[in-house]
Amino acid sequence: MSRFDASRDADLPVGTLPELFFAAVDQFGSDPAFLTYRDGAWRPVSYRQANEDVKAVTFALRDLGLRRGDRAAILSYNRLEWAVSDYGCLCAGVRDVPVYATLPPAQIRYILENSGARLVFVSDEEQLDKIAKFRKQCPDLEHVVVMDVTNSPPEWTMTWADFLERGRAAAGAVEDEDFRASALEAEPDEVATILYTSGTTGPPKGVMLTHNNLYSNVEVSSRVLSVHRGDRTVSFLPLSHVFQRMVDYLLLSRGCSIAHARSIYTSIEDMKVIRPTVVVSVPRVYEKIYSTVMEQGGLKGRLVRWAVGVGGAWFDEVLAGGRPGPTLALNRALADRLVFRKIRSEVGGNIRWFVSGGAPLSPTINRFFHSVGLVVLEGYGLTETSPVTHVNSEDDFRIGTVGRPVPGTEIRIAEDGEILVRGPQVMKGYFNQPEATAEVLTEDGWFHTGDLGELEEDGFLRITDRKKDIIVTAGGKNIAPQHIENRVINSPFIDQVVMVGDRRRFPSLLVVPNFPKLGDWAGSQGIATADPWELLQDARVGDFLRGEIMGRLKNLARFETPKKIGLLRHPFSIEDGTMTPSLKVKRRVVEDKYAELIESFYAESAIDMTVFVA
Asked: How wide is the angle at C-alpha 272 spanned by C-alphas 83 and 360, nearest 5°?
């Protein structure tokens, strides 16, 4: 099947983000909209309190001379002030430009200059220092508002407290009705925000999303995912990425409470306290949880593996529509008491569903979560689609797929396998880049995603790879690397993996081991070192990892099978530029960084299945 239409009879309303916000304030006024960590405790902020701060931001922006259509950037990690700044911009008609807080000064400068931002909100002095490096070279940048300040702020900045006070003074005696009337002048087709793609292959492009792009995505997501008043979440994926941001819009509009994690590194710890009911994340986080559970050794490790096996058998039986027999049901209950409850408690013990997006999730890892009683619903979308185009639901899911199209969405598969999408969530275009827009967006509204997929008869979509990531060997064979990488990543001894080999005679792998687990294995073999470099230099370690990897790649076609393995002592990270802020590996950057190592794979002197170390 090459096409599936979920747009018929969708009956989707059209609207704006201020409409969603004000409706929520009216309905849930005294409920906690946000939970913010201050002075060693989580403190609630009601919908009504948030509305007052949003009003202050709106009038402060106007008092500083920003008008409808102007741009203001937000350079900050997730926090209450991020959300308030965002809603304030939306109500003022100012197009906000989220910027990843992990970006270096040069990339931040590019985004501010390209967007023409007149004001930038920064979270703290670390981000302020970045702005200071290029502020004078940004002619459009007039105002800098700092949320947290410990030292005396530069005279060219304004503190968050002073900014809000300015807004309250400017609002004066303006009635809430008049404030709302002005905010509701926004048109559904008006650009609400400009989000810059993370630039895995070149300079980032500004994706223009309208109010209705996001409003419609909130609406359709609420029809697929069960969200209730009183639900709680921990928001830790960057709000600079549309995935977490749209989900936060959804949850806030339905009366939920959003706790902004103290950092992405404390997110699991924060879940134990907040005890969220719904959470969204990317595969990297699920992979970490999976490896932490499965890498346990000794008697505890054997118990965990037995329990996971029982849970998997039980889940398969239920998924197939059967009824587990009494022995399996009893074993499953025992496994739950001894193992699964403890795993669930690590994420708060109250999760009703997770959603995974941003990159393919290994079916093995997804099945593991379902087996222990944690529902992970894989979805699909892009920044350009606001982002959701597909998602599994609690009562209609298929592991290994990203679900069916959400209501209002059409999908078709092009002759070359590329996924094309049409619907109300598709962007208006790239900011000031009409040619780039025309390359991906047809006149009749079809967006070329750049991803390859297979569409099942009943509408479920399987993502097979990223079109640009396809490896074409020197012999002309096409290799989709992601499904091969997912096999390898299921090993408890492997942390990260990237396949290389485009235009080469054969593919190869760059592998970052799970060093704590590998160190435990080495100790059991009498290898007396835990130092990553020394471990990888030991031939016994190389032989072991080669066997571990190749044992998971059986039954691949000969041309798909890697011939060389490079073992890396340093993980890919945001800090070294090999990962995007949304935790996707930048393949081209990795290939450039390890170009010399990769060249050695293909030297005439290299022998088959050589293991290299870098």
From this structure: 70
Note the pLDDT tens digit of each residue in 397-420.
999 999 999 999 999 999 989 999
User: Over the range 397-411, which residues count as b (16 or more CB within 10 Å of their CB) and which as e?
Assistant: bbbbbbbbbbbbbbb
Is the pLDDT assigned to residue 613 strictly greater than 80? no
Element (DSSP H or E) covering residue 400: none
Q: What span, in angstroms and rounded, lies between the C-alpha atoms of 515 and 496?
A: 11
* Span 530-547, pLDDT tens digits: 788 888 888 899 999 999
At residue 476, what are phi and psi to the nearest 5 degrees?
85, 10
Distances in Å between the Cα of 19 and the Cα atoms of 13, 57, 87, 527 are 12, 17, 11, 63
For residue 3, what is the DSSP state?
E
Specify the pLDDT at position 204.
86
Q: Tokens for 241, please give them.
A: 């990425």
Quick check: 608 pLDDT over 70? no
Euclidean distance between CA atoms 269 and 138, whole angstroms? 40
- In total, the chain counts a number of residues equal to 614
Whole-angstrom distance, CA of residue 271 vs CA of residue 235: 10
Q: Which spans in 186-325 are helix H?
A: 211-224, 242-253, 267-274, 283-294, 298-319
3-state DSSP helix/strand/coil % of the chain, to nearest 5: 40, 20, 40
Q: Mapping DSSP to helix (H, G, I), strand (E, B) and coil, where does residue 88 land?
A: helix
**Tens digit of each residue's pLDDT (9 = 90 or more) over 42-96:** 999 999 999 999 999 999 999 999 999 999 999 999 999 999 999 999 999 999 9
What is the pLDDT averaged over residues 559-571?
A: 91
If DSSP states are collapsed to H, E and C, what string results for 499-551? EECCCCCCCEEEEEECHHHHHHHHHHCCCCCCCHHHHHHCHHHHHHHHHHHHC
Q: Give the span between the Cα atoms of 480 and 476, in whole angstroms.
A: 13
Give the model's pLDDT for residue 557.
Answer: 80
Q: What's the CA gap between 266 and 223, in Å, rounded?
A: 31
**What strands lie across the sheet with 41-46, from one edge to the other?**
41-46, 32-38, 257-260, 232-235
* DSSP code, position 147: S
275 in the Ramachandran plot: left (φ > 0), alpha (ψ -120 to 50) or beta? left
pLDDT, one tens digit per residue, over 377-401 is: 999 999 999 999 999 999 999 999 9
DSSP string, 423-475: STTS-SEETT-HHHHHHHB-TTS-EEEEEEEEE-TTS-EEEEEEGGG-EE-TT
Alpha-carbon gap, residue 242 to 197, rounded angstroms = 10
Give the per-residue pLDDT at 85: 98
Which sign does the torsion angle of CA 235, 57, 240, 263 carry? negative
Which of 218, 281, 208 has the alpha carbon at shortest distance from 254? Answer: 218
Residue 453 has pLDDT above 60, yes or no: yes
pLDDT, tens digit, for every residue of 119-155?
999 999 999 999 999 999 999 999 999 999 878 889 9
| pLDDT exceeds cutoff 70 at 106 | yes
Q: Are 108 and 97 in contact (CB under 8 A)?
A: no
Three-state SS annotation for 305-339: HHHHHHHHHHHHHHHCCCCCCHHHHHHHHHHHHHH
Amino acid at the residue 375: V
Hey, what are 77's tokens? 């990690």
